[in-house]
């Protein structure tokens, strides 16, 4: 009788054991993978080596890929907080500290703002923009758009090679809906700051809200600062 009892319960117990082992196996595997990813991410963010920089760029691309589907909702929620839309690719930069620009806008105030912003960046000596007359040969297209749905004064759309982490192309856009609307009170100086800010993204700079910087995420109250020149010099140090 006892043996029969044992035999009846042998199979369920065996199945339970197998499931239990599989479950713990999965938990352990997930834990090991998480630790490895965490260590790699930590290394990538704290090391200046090329491999680490590429890995960091790849992680950002992966994060951007998953964030993409949610970005519309998120942008609407963040609309009141941001001055521009851009995705930062950590460590991404041009191969050299120079790029060609085609000014595509016909709006006189924006042409002036772009020209002044390009001249101001060139005056730093840290990065050189060259204005070209053929959009096909331009690394950067500087243009305008009008969008009342986001509260962004500008956009920098950067294409990055995920393997080399080098910037391939950037579309910089200034939002005429806000910049040229009197009720938003943008002076010519702040429009130029906005152009300098978007070109800063085009160079490879992130937002910087820790100090006086043209890369502050809101306000466009500052032009190019010493801190911004240092940031570009560091980005293109090797
Ligand atoms: Zn920005």
From TrEMBL:
Protein name (database record): Zn-dependent protease
This protein's UniProt keywords: Hydrolase, Membrane, Metal-binding, Protease, Transmembrane, Transmembrane helix, Zinc
Protein origin, superkingdom: Bacteria
GO terms of molecular function: metalloendopeptidase activity; zinc ion binding
InterPro entries reported for this sequence: MetalloPept_cat_dom_sf, Pept_M10_metallopeptidase
Assigned GO CC terms: extracellular matrix
Boundaries of every Peptidase M10 metallopeptidase domain copy: 110-237
């Amino acid at each position: 009788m006892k043996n029969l009892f044992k035999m009846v319960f042998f199979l369920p117990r065996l199945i339970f054991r197998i499931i239990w082992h599989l479950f713990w196996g999965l938990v352990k595997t997930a834990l090991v993978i998480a630790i490895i990813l965490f260590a790699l991410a930590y290394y990538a963010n704290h090391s200046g080596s090329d491999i680490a920089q590429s890995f960091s760029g790849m992680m950002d691309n992966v994060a951007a890929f998953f964030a993409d589907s949610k970005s519309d909702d998120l942008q609407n929620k963040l609309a009141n907080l941001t001055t521009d839309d851009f995705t930062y690719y950590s460590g991404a930069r041009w191969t050299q500290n120079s790029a060609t620009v085609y000014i595509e806008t016909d709006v006189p105030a924006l042409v002036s703002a772009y020209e002044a912003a390009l001249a101001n960046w060139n005056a730093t000596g840290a990065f050189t923009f060259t204005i070209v007359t053929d959009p096909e040969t331009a690394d950067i297209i500087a243009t305008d758009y009008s969008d009342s749905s986001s509260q962004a004064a500008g956009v920098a759309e950067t294409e990055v090679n995920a393997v080399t982490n080098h910037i391939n192309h950037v579309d910089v856009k200034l939002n005429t809906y806000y910049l040229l609307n009197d009720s938003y009170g943008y002076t010519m100086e702040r429009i130029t700051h906005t152009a300098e800010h978007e070109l800063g993204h085009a160079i490879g700079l992130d937002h910087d809200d820790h100090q006086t910087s043209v890369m502050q995420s809101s306000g466009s109250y500052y032009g190019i600062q010493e801190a911004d020149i240092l940031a570009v010099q560091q980005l293109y140090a090797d």
